[in-house]
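Support reply, case 0932

Customer input (verbatim):
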Amino acid sequence: MPDDSLHQPHDKLFRATFSNPVNAAAFLRHHLGGPLPALVEWDSLALQSGSFIDPQMAGSEADLLFSAKIGGSDALFYILWEHQRSEAPLMGLRLLSYMVRIWKKQAREGGPSTKLAPILPLVLAQDSNRWKTSTCFHELFAFPQGGWEAIRDCTPDFAFTLLELVDLPYEDIRGTPEGILTLRSLKAEPLGELLHSLVWDRGIIAGVATKGVERFFRYVLNADVDREAFKAKVSTQSFTNLTSAAMTLAEQFRQEGRQESEVRSRFQSLLVVLEARFGYIPVGLAEKLTGISDVPTLEKLLKSAAVCRDLEAFTSNC
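Our regenerated output:
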């Protein structure tokens, strides 16, 4: 999906930064534990198209799927990277549903003799508190004492990797300058520290391209920080051509924020109506809808969703 298709500023920043395999590889190769990072050929990391999250969550979450070579072979290895802003006790079940969708897509495209690619399910947790949720899928089941051993051979099981920003000190976040700036920002937002000196690290920001710095500005201002404090922070940096422009961004972003709020409201209403009338929303349709960012079009589609006879008729109006 395009960068402007996600209506949450956290997911916009995450996706815009880590859709770039260079940023993703630089972070993951340093922060994944165990023997896996040494086996992955990080130069082969490639972003795969499409989203596998549930359609009703498409406006509030972001997922990225990468393929890579592993162990010196041509076999594909997938990294499913999910950005999560709050704890999700059923995360294991959600990830399993995404993994099955990926494998089904691979089987459809490759035919009945296809060997499925292994998948590393990975969650980046942004919230300020440590998760209590287990990363082991089998712990979602209620077994009597000793029951797991008796039934484990016929019950799917896996563990997902959980990377919690709350556990990473600002200085220990590794990667490219843009990746570091993004993750420091995502860590700082729920802590109320977006104007912290370690977020506004001059050495880090100096290595970020103009578009990346502008995204950073947008993210900070979307958090509704003190505008004068923001301008003071900007004035301490060496942004050259960005410095004067940044001083007028606060009002511009405030107006855009109001427009985004209206878009988000219409988008969520549209999903609710479609779900209520037809029981489900195809993934392809959900992706198409999240690419719409103007209020009049969403209002037109909302009226259509309320009166159209079926999903096919609604889709013809998109």
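We compared this against your earlier run and they match. Two observations from our side: The CA atoms of residues 194 and 307 lie 45 Å apart. The beta strands are 40-48, 62-70, 76-84, 119-125, 161-164. Please reopen the case if you see a mismatch on your end.
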